[in-house]
From TrEMBL:
NCBIfam families: gnd, PRK09287.1. The keyword NADP applies. This is 6-phosphogluconate dehydrogenase, decarboxylating. PROSITE patterns: 6PGD (PS00461). Belongs to the 6-phosphogluconate dehydrogenase family. Residues 178-467 form the 6-phosphogluconate dehydrogenase C-terminal domain. GO terms for biological process: D-gluconate metabolic process; pentose-phosphate shunt, oxidative branch. Gene3D superfamilies: 6-Phosphogluconate Dehydrogenase, domain 3 (1.20.5.320), N-(1-d-carboxylethyl)-l-norvaline Dehydrogenase, domain 2 (1.10.1040.10), NAD(P)-binding Rossmann-like Domain (3.40.50.720). NADP(+) binds at G9, L10, A11, V12, M13, G14, N32, R33, T34, V74, K75, A76, N102. SMART domains: 6PGD.
Amino acid sequence: MKNYIGLIGLAVMGQNLALNIARNGFSVSVYNRTPERTKEFIEKRVKEEKIDPYYDLKSFVESLEKPRKIILMVKAGQPVDEMIQELLPYLEPGDLIIDGGNSYFRDTSRRIRELKDKGILYLGMGVSGGEYGALHGPSLMPGGTKEAYKLVEEMLLKIAAKTEDGPCCTYVGDDSAGHFVKMVHNGIEYAIMELIAEIYDIMRKVLNMPSEEIGKVFESWNNGELNSFLMEISYKIMRVKDEETGKPLVELILDKAEQKGTGKWTAQTALDLGIPTPTLNMAVEARIISHFKDLRVELSKTLPVSKESISLNREEILKDLEKALLFGVFISFSQGLWLIDEASKVLNYNIDLSEVLRIWKGGCIIRAKILNFLREIIKENPQNANLLASEKTVNFLKDKIESVKKISDIGKRSGISLLCLNSALDYYFALATENLPANLIQAQRDFFGAHTYERIDKEGIFHTEWEKLE
Ligand code: NDP
């Protein structure tokens, strides 16, 4: 009896996904470059599941029913290309490779093209939810041809997380649509994490709240509109004590945030496509700045940052912080969805934004109650990709603006950097402004580079010899 599917790459994600697939009744062959990892996995984690180990690629491929379906869960980048090259001699036209890693979407497009010539089907599939999600039900974002998706649809729908709106998996769109959506998912994830961190900073430095107390407030927020996975883990983090010192563990963690690239790709791609995503971009900048710890320690001794003492009504500020965070989360989604929509048009992905929001509702890191509301807005008008042109949005943001302004002001008066929150507010102001000062930019460009400009009172393209008229 041949196995239904093969999985290559038995690090944390691959192991858990293999177990999830097998527990849902699909037999799995597994392979890992380093055989010890395969052995350890089989010995330690596989019990009654139908998972068979293979130690060479030829017998691994031969163990699969045709057309073969193989999931790659290896490190993104070169390793994916290497694995494809190693597999090719054993594959036949009609076989399917699914890349479940965090591959760069342009790499996925290239691989789809290259493999199409050989008759090999390819899906680029975003997988979100970390190791827990992979085991118990992730959010799955597969993209590629419909034909390729159909081959594994039944299995994907079974292994995905479930919500009242169905399994958190859908055919996202053509070509590299799946990896594109996963990339932006991560960009939004970076922004929401940074926003929570900025709010936390105000709570600890301005309101002088101990971690445990912050945790209690986060927990209460998680019971309301801010209900989300990231809010939930944040309140849980606040409770954890270091075993040795008894202090809250979060307070002992070095303030240097790491990154693997998906947030940066989101920002780079947004710049390429000409879609404004300042809040997502600032979240990447914040991680970069955090890395200059030694420099920050030095400069903190010399650079003047006047810290005013502010008289505060704690309960009021906490309400403002909650609203400010909601505002920031909404704006982060607004920017991410706009970017996805533009890519969908430019790269012909044909993505349904309402479906994207639906499959983000469970399993993934950015799952949140607010997604229901965002879906309502998109369903009302699918052209309103950035969510801003809706009465629902106006009513939602109306009572939050003053809170964001208040928190932004507190940040400035206390010398606290709020890169994401301030950028969300400025993005909002900019889009809500009829007359931006870009007229001056155009004049400057024309002054030094004869780049020309348009006028508000006449049709046409104009150039001025500025110095002659001065
Ligand atoms: P890693 O990203 O740490 O990758 C390790 C796996 O890749 C190992 O199986 C390793 O094999 C294999 N590998 C590395 N280089 C090669 C190569 N040149 N040829 C063949 N195999 C190679 O593992 P994760 O489980 O963390 O992630 C897998 C994928 O899923 C990545 O793309 C990641 O970005 C993505 N992802 C991860 C999430 C997470 O929470 N960790 C969440 C969502 C997606 P060996 O044992 O031989 O070294």
